Amino acid sequence: MTETVTGGNAVGSMTLSGTGYDQKPESTQLELVQVGRGTPYGEVLRRYWQPVALSSSATTTPTPLRILGEDLILFRTRRGVPALMSPRCAHRGASLFYGGVEDDGIRCCYHGWVFDPQGHCLEQPCEPDGGRHRERVRQPWYPVREYHGLIFAYMGPPDAVPDFVHWDVLEELDPGETVIADDNSFSGGGPKELDFNWLNHYENVLDPFHVPILHARFSGVQFIPEMGILPECRFSYTDQGVGCYSVRELDDGRRLYRLSEAVFPNVRVIASPRMTSMGPSRLLGWVVPRDDTHFVIFTLARVTDPDALAKERTLQGGKPWAELTPEEHQRYPGDYEAQSSQGALPVHSRETLTTTDQGITMIRRLMAKQIRAVREGRDPIGVSHTGKDVTAEVKAGVWFDDAPWLTDEARRNGEV
After folding, report:
1. What predicted TM-score, i.e. pTM, was given to this entire model?
2. Per-residue DSSP letters for 205-269?
3. Residue 9 pLDDT grade (very low, low, confident, very high; cuts 50, 70, 90)
4. CATH of region 162-413
5. What is the model's pLDDT at position 13?
6. Which CATH number applies to 48-145: 3.40.50.2300, 3.40.50.1460, 2.102.10.10, 3.40.50.150?
């Protein structure tokens, strides 16, 4: 009788190699994926203003939030001022989720202490004279700003508050245009709150090579046929993060140029893969961690159609993601299936990075550089302290035949 061993060698005493038993122990670069206070990249994220909710979520009914591993409550006073603070009352720790919102703050349901949006204690009704020493009490709070329908919070050191950033493409709108805010913009399909580590998705911005495979050849054309062409790419550090510059040679002789950019610390700027608009991208997405294994994507989009984002959502097997059966999820995988299957935390020790992963290695190196900067007391990339609002330029976009980032020599040679 002949014995056959699949994947091995039946020679002499039979030597096996490369089996699952020989795998390296699992390990993750935790300094890149963890987001809690005191963690390496968690401290980087806290040096920037982060979107935490839609403006419409801030009402006179307290709303619980989990952002960067911290449990918080969001509310809006009856005078219209948004507030974000720790839910545990500074008195005895009862949750302000059950509090009552008033004109100037929130009143704890337990003993009636009132806190304004900056955490000052305004009233202690059970104490003599309404609390003779109430000015000594401060409820932990975070400063917030509203911008185009999103509430941003600064959760870092009080002595390092950065300038608030506006984005040029969202300013000076044309007639008929508006900016819409969205908190469900994982366009590749998936739940509103994603149940895996944020970096699995964020570094995908710099992975153009998965597009013609996952979104075209494997699961059918999920965008447009042009995006199914394997691009020629180069990657470059920018003054905001890392850019992916690509070109596709189309059948009609035209060239399709794209620039996608990972803007630090967690902003993705990607032109519509359906090319619904040309030129600079009109859509920005913040990949905001809830904690180490959950995140949400907040999006601001400049549109003429209020339903534009809904129309951008990817169909898999001709269906919206939520309508797929388990068998169809397996047959027509999209971004959610691919990225969530990397694990709640990625296993970096078992990766095999190659030349097409240059963008991934570059973003990880730049993340490590920002970690060092913060540890050494320096500002990370893109942070300024002028005391005024500043405007950032959106460079990413899509163009036919020419692109603003091409050099004259590259234009003559038809290079990326």
Report:
1. 0.91
2. GG-TTHHHIIIIIIT--SS-GGGGSPPEEEEEE-SSEEEEEEEEE-TTS-EEEEEEEEETTTEEE
3. low
4. 3.90.380
5. 60
6. 2.102.10.10
